[in-house]
Amino acid sequence: MIKRVPKLYCHQLGKFKTDIQVPTHELLAKLGIISYPHSGLVHWGKTGLLIQDKINGIVRENLDHLGYEELKLSLLSHKNLWLQTGRWHQPDLFKLQNDEYLLAPTAEEEITEYVKRSIQSYKHLPVGYYQINEKFRAEKRPRGGLLRGREFLMKDAYSFDIDETSALKTYESMVNAYHNIFREIGVPYVKAQADSGDIGGDLSHEWHLLNQNGEDTVFTCDSCGHTSNVEKTIAYPTEEEIKNSKGGEEVAVKYFTTEDRDTLVCAYYPVNRQLEPKFMLEDIPDLDLKDKRLQEEIILAFEANENEFSKSVVRVMDARLNSRSNFPDFPINFTNKSMITTLTEVPIVLARAGEVCGECEEGHLQESNAIEIGHTFYLGEKYSKPLNLTVEVPTNDNGNTLESRFVKMGCYGIGISRIIAAVAEINRDDRGLRWPASIAPWEATIITDDASKVEAVESQLMQIDCRLDGRDERFGYKFKASTTMGIPLIIVLGKSFPHVEIEIRGILKHGWEEHLKSLNKEIDFVWDIEYKDGTPVKCFVEKDHLTFVVKQLLRFM
């Protein structure tokens, strides 16, 4: 039996506009995909759940193929684990029960404890788990609907390996799975080298959908192709910029110390640029970036250190500065000149479009706005060490002696609700949404003036993910509803039946034209296509070939 559209599907269609000026999060709500009971919270309607199911299915298929097992951890987490990992005092946690519990924003602590209780031997490794459920964040200014709320739907996966070599192989296998997942979803994406942030770890990548309205910024080199987010993009000034520098540019300075407090680090950079202190870690690995003291306090404390032999100064000059730049006065009277080191041509500010790529030092950086939809982290011992997740591993082939080793971890997130918001934003036009076939609520809407016509092609329709709009409404209303919702195809069983009209709403991908030419050499029936401004908008086919034509169209949507 053919399924029908949801009862309240687009039932307020005549009460709102769909043009591009309407914010996407409002359009999603007006179409009943979601609703907002309060700022930062979301209810999911039937069509929203159908889209979720499609994305979840793609995710599950790829992670199951890797051997990960799905589980479901509690949404509540006790503070004990978070105190051990040092994350209990983060400001964006929802805490309950007199600060004894929190609503989980992520699950590194709980999954580590779960595995600690589960594995009995190193032979149980490697192991991987994932879950798809709600997460919570005490967002102060929720905005953009699903893009930045207090509640969001997320896939989080975790891997556990016996050593770093195998853990990095696991990381790469997950990266490959992410490529497969986002290719199947069907919207252009990029993988960007990223900072690990509060999650921690030594290696991480963000996954973005490119969009001019995105809040994130990524840079891509036009030569080597390296892509990174703005916090990880190293850039040098162009030769033209250096050549045109007249000197006298104002210079800003910020002071740091090393972790032992014996070295004062002075970072000099153009006053009109933004300093990124993490860029200095390669040259000064023990730079203390967690120091919360005021600039004056750092300088006074360094001056108060009476051990002149242990004190030193490192001056770091951004690559955009030169000897003619207008440097500020040195803040202290440091007489031990031999203990002053100056590092020049070090890029320590955030990149700008057009600058030279710091990765290959040949190409130039292209800037894009993007929406983050996923993040992969290699964690190493970030959580296994404080939570004491260890295994006893043989130190020789005989297995006579054992050593305790911390398990190496990785974690991998995909924002399911963010994908829905991002794809809706990227693919929409003045007529409404346009879902890729892979994640559309359904692939085709059936519209007819006679139920018997549906029965005549029911066996074919059962092979398609379709829904019948059998409501007592005009044809035009049903057309507009399916078009606005972004269903890829509309199958019309109308006056021309047994000839069927197929309205194309989805976006046909590159390669469609070549595929069509190849098909026309093989098929033995007439398949007419109507174009508008060079774009296919309708197909006409005899009913016996309906399934074949629909499946060919969906392959490229």
From TrEMBL:
It comes from the Eukaryota. GO terms for biological process: prolyl-tRNA aminoacylation. Its EC number is 6.1.1.15. Keywords: Aminoacyl-tRNA synthetase, ATP-binding, Ligase, Nucleotide-binding, Protein biosynthesis. GO terms for molecular function: ATP binding; proline-tRNA ligase activity. InterPro entries: aa-tRNA-synt_IIb (IPR002314), aa-tRNA-synth_II (IPR006195), aa-tRNA-synth_II/BPL/LPL (IPR045864), Anticodon-bd_dom_sf (IPR036621), Pro-tRNA-ligase_IIa (IPR002316), Pro-tRNA-synth_IIa_bac-type (IPR004500), Pro-tRNA_synthetase (IPR050062). It catalyses: tRNA(Pro) + L-proline + ATP = L-prolyl-tRNA(Pro) + AMP + diphosphate. PANTHER family: MITOCHONDRIAL RIBOSOME PROTEIN L39/PROLYL-TRNA LIGASE FAMILY MEMBER, PROLINE--TRNA LIGASE. Belongs to the class-II aminoacyl-tRNA synthetase family. This is proline--tRNA ligase. It comes from Lodderomyces elongisporus (strain ATCC 11503 / CBS 2605 / JCM 1781 / NBRC 1676 / NRRL YB-4239).
